Amino acid sequence: MRRLFPVTDETAAPAPGGASGGDAGREWSLDELAAAYAYPEPGPGGRVPWLRANMVSTLDGAAQHDGRSQPISSATDMRIFGTLRALADVVVVGAETVRKEGYRPARAREDFAAMREAAGQRPAPAIAVVTAGLDLDFSLPLFTSPLVPTLILTGAAAAPDRVATAEKAGARVVTAGDGIGVDPARAVRALADLGHTRLLTEGGPRLLGQLVAAGVLDELCLTVSPMLTAGDAQRIAGGPAVTVPHRFELVSMLEEDGFLFTRYGRA
Predict the structure, then answer these.
(1) Helix crossing, 205-214 with 184-193: angle to 10°?
(2) Cα–Cα dist 255/262, whole Å
(3) Would the pTM of this model clear 0.90, i.e. be above it?
(4) What is the predicted pLDDT for the residue at 19?
(5) What is d(CA 62, CA 242) in angstroms, rounded to the nearest whole number?
(6) Phi-psi domain of 85 (left: phi exceeds 0; alpha: psi -120 through 50; beta: other)
(7) Rounded distance, CA 71 to CA 2, Å?
(8) DSSP for 93-146, written as a single string
């Protein structure tokens, strides 16, 4: 893998035969990936919530193929996926993605154990499912056997019987909206109140669209996959368009085998 941006002394022009720079042709260690994707350091007032998204898109804008993101991913993309999870306090995901992708609890990884302990984090991030109707299979391992109890983010008007079912399964239900649905800004505050300030969302597109529209997304980690799929697959963010496009700026870009691993931060 090689770093394309920001340009450093190790960022060199391609050499004859396709080799380039000190990073090219070398698999980055997990420590190097963790440093490349570190959350912002706490300010004078302590750590504040920082919400980043991690998504993958083909060259023609598809966020999925046959309803799943795995076919357009790569081994390195999955290493970065795991690293981003290892850095997070909580992973925020939409109910539809839980159903489609067969979400399981985040696992503790020995490679990151010391880092998480030093950062005051639990052995693995919690999973927080955003859902209005709580239409979920609470017999799945995500709810029955997580290392860290799964959170359910829902509205105050959620059906009491579904809330009771979720709590009976071991999930912690967190109210983050006055009606049926979830208010994204309130969800971020509610998670921060629980001590979760290093936030990661993995979508899906509908949830990411809601976060974008609410103006609560601080960072986008976008993998650009060198694939074309055509068809009518969703983009990485769906839902109504924002009135004025939100401007983000490039923070970093890595490359391997034609895949671009980008980070964009709020401008």
Answers:
(1) 90
(2) 9
(3) yes
(4) 46
(5) 20
(6) alpha
(7) 23
(8) EEHHHHHHHT-------HHHHHHHHHTT--SSPEEEEE-SS----TTSHHHHS-
